[in-house]
Please model this.
Amino acid sequence: MRPSVIALMGASLLAVLPFATAFADEGGNTPYVTPRVDVDVTYQAVGPDGQSYSQRMRWNAAHWQQRLDMETTGLIMLTDYRAHRLSVVDVRTKSFTVSGAPDAQFSPPGTRATGHWAKGAGDQVAGQACTHWVSIDTDGQNGDFCYTDNGVMMSASHEGKPVIRAISYVETPQGPEIFKEPEGFHEIEALKLSQ
Model:
């Protein structure tokens, strides 16, 4: 499992849930990298321009659904990994675009990361215990990720620079209604890139 820290900062932001690249390590030598519990986490993230912004992630463990609210952009990303569906909602234009979820390498809850990881020190982030794990991310750069024992990422840094850090954490049931496009919003066909 080699998460992309750059994706945490930018367009996809789906790297809050990292992806597997090979068979899982069941021996405990790597972290769980997908939440095993329903959770509501607010992060403070730092963009490539150095600006700080908030991002709220909600996860339903039983249904493998994620909602990311990106405060400064007016975008909401709704991902249903079981249905292989990604919806990007624009609250400013009351529209949404649907495509396939980037889940070919998705690591289900309860599956440990693959790849080479070095376990580091324990930490406390947003009142939660987490363990630092160092790995090479998908960009070939050193990444430090602090995960709870339940697979929730609490912080990440890229080449020693902080990228994202949880500022609030609540384990609470996440109902199906928050993973749907708001009523009254219209669908826009996704752009197709020419080959």
Q: What stands out?
A: Confidence is low (pLDDT under 50) at residues 1-26. The two ends are 29 Å apart (CA to CA). The longest helix spans residues 5-9.
